[in-house]
Design goal:
alpha/beta, 2 domains, 13% strand, single chain, Glucose Oxidase, domain 1, Rossmann fold, globular, 38% helix, 14 strands, 23 helices, 607 residues
């Protein structure tokens, strides 16, 4: 039985509403003005409209030339290189056919770039990754700017793509929008086995051939990578925020059920346009309650730390001001109900089989952890998402109620008896600035580390020191000049194997950085997204080798234990960042590095 939202969740929601009042009011006023203008296509000049349907078939031209037919815009992040996005190649044909069945037209309105962080890990291309989110938002905006569409469907999955698409959808908030997932790849080798081989490679105990064979067995086919990183956190968010069809998030690609859900998403997008009786502009869905639900879902499932930036940027596009303190306060009261790698051994397919999103949403509603009274593309409150889709013998799609019990309590537990009582994300404050840490995969005895700093200006420098045997001791690795202004704030996943090896050897180790670690943040305590960043003269630039640093994820503090007078007088170091300014397209993003906001503000150039 769904409970009224708890007092604490209600309080946090209300303070976000108050803080956002003026910005949200301006946003809704602009949205309402757009709605009042009505559909644009029928008011176009004849030459404009003729350009808009010139490439369509005869039947579609006839429909678009008339007054009553609906036109659905498709924004796609399809490319062949991203396993998660390759299935989208055939989605436009499925969507066009489904639209024609109800007398409507669907057109690809535009494509957006989609890079794979898995390919660019440890390479210079990663320095474009975070900035690609804002490029995606702008590219989607260009696609929709033709004003030919009554609604839109967004095809995107991975790390920066969905946040960028949400920013674009919010900018066109007068249009209905349905997000259509592609689904995860089938399960390969276990994540624990994959991580073990990575550590053995870092120690020099296996070679490149063994490592590549392991990685290829893990990432082996079309669909999203099956660990619970940013891509799958995105997909969780789209369902718990009411932008997916219920239960559609983790259905694998290229199956009859996946295709049926894509057709149903098409029909639903066309059913909620301004010309129908269930008009649901996406800007009304993206309200304060929906974003609180998103953060609650992130905490309850141990999701990606990247969303401490992405959700802030996404919310701002809808006139809403989220802060890190909101994340931290929600984490304090939201129980961890899922164990999915790197917070457990299961992958997302096992999570889905254990009950998946329907179970998560249901158990959080039962404990008053979610705002139920929200708008969704499904036309219900959030209670309408306590279901899962099934195909009947005749191929028709229907939904059944989810069981109230988890099918595997090693993976999913009810919110009344969770894995831990909090979501495992903390904001750390101290004389080094503000940062975030994800502790859901960190053992309790490793959540407080006090040790000498070893300072590096790149992850490659740490790896060199590790291979030379220079890090066989207790230490806190400080990797600085990795923030958005310095080099675009790359993810630092290449640090995970060496630091994990040292931790497994019994040393006390931790990481402090103004860079990112993302959804793969694991068993090594990592204070990340430190702001102000070193490039801005942040206190991290004052640290010297040997300074004692205390990272306390229990108390929520991050301190350089240097005498106050000495710390105040010490000047911040600088670094030569000229090598970050060119090559692999980095020169194209110089203006982004100059104007980007801080990690705490969403690391955006847009808002």
């Amino acid at each position: 039985m769904t409970r009224t939202v708890s007092a604490r969740i209600g309080e946090i929601t209300e303070r976000i509403v108050r803080r956002s009042h003026d910005g949200r009011a301006r946003y809704l006023e602009r949205l309402d003005r757009q709605i009042e203008k009505g559909p644009r296509r029928n008011k176009m000049g004849c030459a404009n409209l003729a350009h808009g349907f010139a490439a369509c078939g005869v039947a579609d031209k006839g429909l678009l030339a008339g007054d009553g037919a609906l036109n659905l815009g498709i924004i796609t992040a399809y490319n062949d290189m991203l396993s998660a996005h390759q299935p989208f190649e055939r989605f436009p044909d499925v969507i066009r056919a489904a639209a024609r069945e109800v007398g409507a037209v669907a057109e690809v309105a535009g494509g957006v770039p989609a890079m794979c962080d898995g390919v660019t890990q440890g390479a210079v291309g990663m320095e474009l990754s975070l900035f690609s989110r804002d490029v995606i938002a702008m590219a989607a905006g260009v696609g929709l700017s033709h004003d030919m569409y009554d609604a839109a469907v967004f095809l995107g999955v991975c790390d920066k793509i969905v946040p960028g698409l949400i920013v674009a959808a919010a900018s066109f908030g007068h249009l209905p929008a349905v997000f259509v997932p592609a689904g995860p790849m089938t399960t390969g080798i276990g994540n624990e086995e994959k991580s073990k081989v990575r550590q053995l490679y870092a120690e020099g105990k296996v070679g490149r051939a063994e490592l590549l064979a392991s990685e290829a067995a893990a990432y082996h086919g079309p669909g999203t990578c099956t660990f619970y990183g940013t891509a799958n956190s995105n997909q969780m968010l789209m369902e718990i925020m009411g932008l997916h069809l219920p239960g559609s998030t983790f259905v694998i690609p290229n199956t009859p059920l996946r295709d049926a859900l894509t057709r149903a998403a098409t029909r639903r997008a066309l059913a909620i346009t301004q010309q129908g009786n269930a008009f649901t502009p996406v800007g009304h869905i993206l309200d304060e309650k929906a974003f609180v639900n998103g953060v609650v879902g992130l905490m309850a499932t141990g999701g990606s730390t990247n969303h401490t930036m992405h959700l802030i940027s996404m919310a701002r596009a809808a006139g809403i001001r989220l802060t890190w303190d909101d994340f931290s306060d929600l984490s304090d009261v939201v129980p961890l109900v899922a164990r999915v790698y790197p917070n457990g051994l299961a992958d997302v397919n096992q999570f889905h089989a254990a009950g998946g999103m329907g179970f998560v949403i249901g158990t959080l509603l039962d404990e008053g952890m979610l705002n139920e009274d929200v708008k969704t593309v499904w036309g219900s409150g959030l209670s309408g998402y306590r279901v899962e889709p099934r195909l009947a013998g005749d191929g028709s799609l229907h939904w059944i109620d989810m069981p109230t019990r988890s099918a595997d309590e090693k993976i999913l537990r009810p919110a009344s008896s969770p894995f831990q009582p909090d979501g495992g994300l903390k904001v750390l404050n101290g004389n080094l600035g503000r940062s975030v840490i994800k502790t859901s995969a960190v053992k309790p005895e490793r959540r407080v580390i006090e040790a000498p700093a070893v300072v590096f200006h790149s992850q490659e420098a740490l790896q060199t020191a590790f291979k030379a045997g220079e890090l066989e001791r207790d230490f806190i690795a400080v990797i600085r000049f990795q923030g958005p202004k310095a080099n675009g704030m790359p993810e630092l996943h290449k640090l995970t194997p060496p630091l994990s090896v040292l931790q497994d050897r019994g040393y006390k180790v931790a990481l402090v950085t103004d860079g990112r670690m993302s959804g793969a943040s694991g068993k090594v305590p990592a204070a990340i997204h430190l702001t102000p960043e070193a490039k801005d003269g942040g206190p991290i630039a004052k640290l010297r080798d040997g300074d004692i640093v205390r990272l306390d994820a229990v108390a929520g503090t991050l301190q350089a234990l240097v005498p106050e007078a000495e710390w105040t007088a010490r000047e911040a170091e600088t670094a030569d960042l000229s090598d970050n300014e060119w090559g692999t397209g980095r020169e194209l993003f110089a203006s982004f590095r100059r104007t980007v906001g801080s990690a705490e503000e969403g690391a955006s150039i847009i808002a």
